[in-house]
Amino acid sequence: MRSPAPAALGLLLLLLPPPPAEAAKKATPCKRCRELVDKFNQGMVDTAKKNFGGGNTAWEEKSLSKYESSEVRLLEITEGLCGSSDFECHSLLEEHEGHLEAWWLRLKKDFPDLFEWFCVKTLKVCCSPGTYGPDCLACQGGSQRPCSGNGHCSGDGSRQGDGSCQCHLGYQGATCSDCTDGYFSSLRNETHSVCTACDGSCKTCTGPSNKDCGQCAEGWAQEDGACVECDSTCVGCTGKGPGHCKECVPGYTKESGQCADIDECARPEKACTRQNENCYNTPGSFVCVCPEGFEDTEDACVQTQAPGGEVAEGDPTRQPSREDL
């Protein structure tokens, strides 16, 4: 069986349904409704200072009612709501144009918030801010201040979600009113909870300085009532400096009560095991290097240049001498 031609294959790919990731990007009914209302409100702003545009505005307003609440203005607003290729917007507008007209001509004064009247109360595709789910229940922490103002309520303002809180950095708990490790409560009352970052030396704290630590962060130790930074040679410490290490980092060992560098190159057992290889000690480690005139290979340092600058025997770059011939 022959494989399809590139052009035919490209056409086939275009006809396939979009992958799940693209399908997931489709706007929810609430989002589409909110976008339509936002465009309508913008249309009201854009037409706020206009009039009928005729030669006798006073007569027109007396005979046709004021432009501000006229069908002419409504038509100008609705004509600019949807882009030419925005099928979903056109479909929503066509389906509910009667509702928008009723609100504009008769209900606007009693229900000035178009989003609340149209999307929440009439179409029932959204919820009021601070509420969620099919029945528009109050979010955790209450609808006036969901999640204590320190997080996002799942489904807030929509008919979706479960009302649980996703807390901002530094906050935790069902209503995001508690502080996580690394933060302390700097303000708390019946309506507000504010968590502020601890000093970098603290794992837990009751205030902003290194003297307010409940526990020191990793790499720090309690000394004279404050958390001080451990020496770089320490794994845990009881105070400042290499003499207060609990344990030493790899490459260091306790000597005379403090962590000192191990000279791996001075040990009886060779640290660098390849033939002709030199060992150089470094803080906490060592490096193995081929000397000058030697080539680095996997198993050994191979001499490429004899002392005095002559090419070494066995070197493929060496030219044969009369003795070799």
UniProtKB/TrEMBL annotation:
PROSITE patterns: ASX_HYDROXYL, EGF_1, EGF_2, EGF_3, EGF_CA, EGF_LAM_1. It catalyses: Catalyzes the rearrangement of -S-S- bonds in proteins. Residues 304-325 are annotated as: Disordered. SMART domains: EGF, EGF_CA, FU. Disulfide bonds join C167-C176. Its EC number is 5.3.4.1. It comes from the Eukaryota. The keyword Ribonucleoprotein does not apply. Gene3D superfamilies: Laminin (2.10.25.10). Residues 1-23 form the signal peptide. Pfam families: EGF_CA. One of its GO terms (molecular function) is protein disulfide isomerase activity. It is an enzyme of class 5 (isomerase). Keywords: Disulfide bond, EGF-like domain, Glycoprotein, Isomerase, Redox-active center, Repeat, Signal. Residues 135-177, 261-302 form the EGF-like domain. Belongs to the CRELD family. This is protein disulfide-isomerase.
